[in-house]
Amino acid sequence: MSAPVASAAYEDADWARLRAAAREAMERAYAPYSNYRVGAAARVDDGRIVSGCNVENASYGLSLCAECGLVSALHATGGGRLTHFTCCNAAGEVITPCGRCRQLLMEHGGPGLWLQTPEGPRTLGELLPQSWRLDHPVPPDADAAGA
């Protein structure tokens, strides 16, 4: 991956405000099993900020990532498209979403969604190249091939 290059679209967000919202959400995380608390925050195309935190479950595989909470908050407050995203751990360090969460964010922000990463600004398209998207057609022989 090439060196990060910030653009006007990246700089268009109030990153300090987003980081503060992510840290505030992280404080509400429910992580009694892993003790790994995560908060996420994003700007929506209408200017709103939505956030979420991880919520664990004794059946660990059913735990919800902070990004899941964020996307639920997006839809519960009117929908829209995510434009800028940040995520932090309990130490307040910027972290990047896992692959599952990158796919979730792709469906609600698209490849142009700007993310803060430990290495600098990246678009989601850079972090999740060739992602599956609703606008990608299914090959006509996919059912026959068992895909």
UniProtKB/TrEMBL annotation:
Keywords: Hydrolase. Its EC number is 3.5.4.5. Residues 13-135 form the CMP/dCMP-type deaminase domain. It is an enzyme of class 3 (hydrolase). It holds the Pfam family dCMP_cyt_deam_1. It comes from the Bacteria. Gene3D superfamilies: Cytidine Deaminase, domain 2. GO terms for molecular function: cytidine deaminase activity. Belongs to the cytidine and deoxycytidylate deaminase family. NCBIfam families: PRK05578.1. This is Cytidine deaminase.
